[in-house]
Amino acid sequence: MIINGENLCIHTITTKPWGIDKCLAAYSRVGVGGISIWRQSVENRSKREIYRRANESGLRIASYVRGGFFPSISVQDRQKAIDENLRIIDEAYELGAPLVVLVCGAVPGQSLSSSRDQIADGIAACLDHAQEAGVRLGIEPLHPMYSDDRSAVNTLEQATDIAIQLDHPMIGVTIDVYHTWWDMHLEKEIKRCGAHDKIFSFHICDWRTPTMDLLNDRGLMGEGCIPITQISQWISEAGFHGFHEVEIFSNRFWSMDQGQFLNRIVEAWNQLQSKE
Ligand code: ZN
To answer: What's the CA-to-centroid distance between 191 and ligand 1, angstroms?
Structure first.
């Protein structure tokens, strides 16, 4: 029996070996309320059909993952990135996804501040289109270990600053405990982000010790050292009451039976609920 399953959302990447149809069927069967759909899991599929199927299975689509990767040395490549993000927004619209998560990008060798300027410019070029589509954009700050080539936005403070600076209702922030838990200013920044109504979504998982792979060794909630209950409380106090989205990249979990893994996610979620 799942506790408060309507607040629980799972990212399709979490059960990567499963196709989208299996994810929809299995998540709804255990009583999960939402699904965040990764682009590769619906490649070459009709987005409208997936939208209908999600509705039929009783799952709400929380977000479409992911856009971003705006910075580049050349103007042409930056324009290509903008065009790609406009397409991603169109796909999110067809899917009925209210949000696109942005992993903003970085260029090794280019200063992080230049990359952040290019990120702000790239997002700005997408905002009117996002508004027409009714799709919001969430800047996800990534842990600094990814600042070389995945994102020059590495703290919640930087993400919130860009969102405030762009001054547009469609831009906000996605807060992921994996990327932000270490930040001594996290509580204060969650409060500030919430005060500006910029908390658009919330991702959970855990940080394992030792971490064997910088990308694909995330832990299941409760397996690591992230104070998830504490951070969830700050998020809630800041006015965000949306989904808690389980997003786990893990070679370890991907290699096991995904049905058993899903059961473990539900158990870990229930454990968290009993503490909150
Ligand atoms: Zn995330």
So the answer is: 19
